[in-house]
């Protein structure tokens, strides 16, 4: 009812005013909605940083650079915990070079299929050192070097955290190096190189080459010959280099 009404009832006077609406005012509702929409969204919580893994270093060395059939190689494997937290159950392994025979390992190392394994807990800053001995067998034809690899991992089915390797030159490798050096030295020049597994070539400048000064330009005669035949055919090539 919009207008007030007065009703006389047996001496009583009853005043009836406009009925109050049960719904909130539309204007008030609109303002409240706008106010809520204007508030910025709460920022997302920053993602927790991923936990850092173990900080390790590893080295393997047999104290030599060459090896031959019958030699005994004594490898020293060293793993250091560089972090401030202990590492439990670390799997340390050394893969022996192909063609070698396992002899012994200390620190309770277990050999299986050419790989020596240690299970070790490392306190912060602790250093683990182990020794492995293997005998060199007859190298395969064309084998130039022997290589052993040591790694550390958290488990056998997980990728290694760190790895290191050590290699020794075999007699075939030394012979190949000597042949290459001899072929290069046969040029008689001041600089030489032998490249590739096919026909071998060497280059030289100076010495048997000819160095000529012509005015302001420098003419450098570069010759190259094949070194894999008894009488290499000459195949001279000349190139004039710019000044400087």
From TrEMBL:
It holds the Pfam family DUF11. Residues 1-22 form the signal peptide. Residues 57-139 form the DUF11 domain. Residues 38-58, 225-244 are annotated as: Disordered. Keywords: Membrane, Signal, Transmembrane, Transmembrane helix. It comes from the Bacteria. The chain crosses the membrane at residues 201-222. NCBIfam families: B_ant_repeat (TIGR01451). This is DUF11 domain-containing protein. It comes from Nakamurella flavida. The lineage of its organism: Bacteria, Bacillati, Actinomycetota, Actinomycetes, Nakamurellales.
């Amino acid at each position: 009812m919009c207008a007030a009404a007065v009703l006389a009832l047996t001496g009583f006077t009853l005043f009836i005013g406009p009925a109050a609406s049960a719904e909130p005012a539309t204007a008030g509702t609109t303002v409240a909605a706008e106010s809520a929409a204007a508030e910025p969204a709460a920022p997302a919580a920053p993602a927790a940083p991923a936990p850092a893994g173990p900080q390790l270093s590893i080295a393997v060395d047999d104290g030599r650079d060459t090896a031959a059939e019958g030699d005994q190689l004594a490898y020293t494997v060293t793993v250091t915990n560089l972090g401030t937290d202990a590492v439990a159950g670390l799997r340390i392994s050394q893969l022996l070079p192909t063609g070698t025979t396992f002899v012994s390992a200390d620190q309770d190392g277990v050999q299986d299929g050419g790989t020596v394994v240690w299970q070790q807990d490392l306190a912060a800053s602790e250093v683990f050192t182990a020794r492995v001995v293997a005998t060199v067998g007859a190298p395969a034809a064309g084998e130039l070097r022997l290589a052993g690899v040591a790694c550390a991992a958290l488990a056998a089915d997980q990728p290694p955290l760190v790895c290191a390797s050590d290699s020794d030159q075999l007699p075939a490798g030394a012979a190949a190096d000597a042949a290459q050096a001899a072929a290069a030295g046969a040029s008689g020049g001041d600089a030489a190189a032998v490249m590739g597994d096919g026909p071998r070539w060497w280059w030289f400048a100076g010495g048997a080459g000819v160095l000529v000064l012509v005015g302001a330009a420098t003419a450098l005669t570069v010759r190259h010959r094949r070194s894999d035949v008894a009488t290499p055919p000459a195949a001279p090539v000349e190139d004039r280099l710019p000044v400087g």
